[in-house]
Predict the 3D structure of the following.
Amino acid sequence: MDPAEAEFLAEKELVTVIPNFSLDRIYLIGGDLGPFNPGLPVEVPLWLAVNLKQRQKCRLIPPEWMDAEKLEEIRDQERKEDTFTPMPSPYYMELTKLLLNYASDSIPKADEIRTLVKDTWDTRIAKLRLSADSFVKQQEAHAKLDNLTLMEINTTGTFLTQALDHMYKLRTNLQPAESAQSQDF
C-alpha cells in the first residue's frame, strides 16, 4: 500500500463542517449525509468537507485533538515513552496534511500544529527505525508493534520486508547444505 492509498482511506474519516447553504439529506452508498442547514454543524466525510471548503460552501471545524496544547502533550508523551503511544486518530498525519492544505484558515495556530505533528511523526519514525534495527540485529522471527498507524507501517514496511528477505537469503546461503548428496557413479 502506498501513501496515496492510506490517504484515500483517511478521507472517509468524519469531520464537522458548518455549511452556508441548505440541502436535504444526501443518499450515498456509504450512508446518508445531512441535512445541511446554514450555521448548524454537521458531520461529513473528509473528502466531502474538503470539496465543500474548496467551493466555499462551508467552514470546517478541526477535530478536538487538532489543538496546539493537546498536540504538545502528545508529542511530549511520545518522546518520554520507549514504546509507541496511542495517537488521537489512526490517520492523524493524513488528516493534518489534508486539513492544513485545504482549510488552514479554519484552524487556529495552523503552523504550530503542522510543526507539532511533524515532530511527533519524526519521533515515532525514529522509534520505528530503532525497533527495526534491534529486530534485525537480534535475528528475531517476529515482532509486536502496538499503536502504529497505517502510514507509519507503510513508511518502513517495504524496507523492512526487503531487508528481512535479504537476510534470509544470506543465512540460507551460509548454512552448509545438509541434504546435498554426492553424485558418485
In short: The mean pLDDT is 89. The radius of gyration is 23 Å.
